[in-house]
Amino acid sequence: DVYQDGSAKPHVFKNCRRASWGIISLDSSGLVSSRAFGPVYAPVPQTSAAGEWASFHVLLELAGPEGVRAHQDYENIVLAMKRSVSHRLRPSSMYAGLARASCGPGASRLQSLEKVKAHTTDLDVQHCPVLKRHKVGNDAADLAAKEGLEAHLAPTPAELRDINAQIADARATLRVAAA
């Protein structure tokens, strides 16, 4: 079973927003047997939705010939996979580029795609072994996606100058407003 997740770190300044993806695989005993994570780079929007789509894209790219049973906590992907290819790739779709993987060879290796509940507690899953497994998998995928945030490069000197200029403008505006 493979679990995937996306993550994002919002920021007031658009250039400082960050998104990432994470994928983990659970073995038959419910332990993490493999994991992968990484950043989502611009020009893809730096949102958690972008991270979710990126994780799904990577999952389909890495799926082996034996196939994969995927678990996803982002319902929009599960719903999109029930729709036509033309709907997933429509020009108005912000994530059509990432969704393109859902039409490639990896899609034929997708045995199933199941929506799982995000951020469950031990109390929520205490009476159901399947839900416990989903909690372990989804929590591990969430942690992997958060590690992906740390894989982003630091802002460039030009980006830092731009941010500092925006901060200076905001301070000047506040001084005028306070006067």
Structural commentary:
- With 179 residues, the chain is α/β, with parallel strands linked by helices.
- The protein contains seven helices and five strands; from the N terminus they run E-E-E-H-E-H-H-H-E-H-H-H.
- It has helices at residues 48-62, 75-80, 85-88, 96-99, 122-125, 129-150, 157-178, and strands spanning 2-9, 18-26, 32-40, 68-72, 110-115.
- It has a five-stranded mixed β-sheet.
- A hairpin with an 8-residue loop joins strand 1 and strand 2.
- It is globular and about 65 Å long.
- The N and C termini lie far apart (61 Å).
Short description:
The chain has helices at 48-62, 75-80, 85-88, 96-99, 122-125, 129-150, 157-178, and strands at 2-9, 18-26, 32-40, 68-72, 110-115. With 179 residues, the chain is of the alpha/beta class.
